Amino acid sequence: MRSNRRLADSLAQQRDLRHEAARLKRLNETDPMTGLLNPVAFRHQAERLLAEVPDRLAHVALIYLDLDNFKWVNDTFGHQAGDTVIRSTARVLHRAIREGDIAGRLGGDEFMVVLRNAEREAAAAIALRIATGISRPLSWSSPGQTAVSTIKPMASFGISCATAAGQTLEALQHEAEEAMYLAKRHKRHAG
Which residues are catalytic? Predict the structure, then answer.
């Protein structure tokens, strides 16, 4: 009986250690505000997906997005409002990506998504779905105030695709980031 009890205790301890290790790994890899991958974990997983391109003749697409006028949101409505926009954006990203895709917060108001087995058209469709989700009006009330504030967040997007072996994450990120800044400049001149 004692040996059975010791075995049960030992198995329970091992289970608890596995759960704790998984919890610590999650904490180490995710952005605490959003639950998305942090920059280091995102880079690691994105490079792993890129390494699959030559093996499976798969396409990998990268979406780079930056929230528009985010500094204005923080300056006008306060950091609580900015945090609400960031968390809402993360929820949209979680819902928009498919199994096997990854999303990460680079910091501030910048995010990246890597889509496996996706060509530019599929990436554009997912970016549109993300843009639609982000632009839904958000309402909140600041502590101590009865007035409700509402904002309609917007984001600018850039897309790049890896279709051949040897394309680096840095090159794809640079291409998508440049496309995003071009889109952001176009919005300023158009509106």
Answer: 109
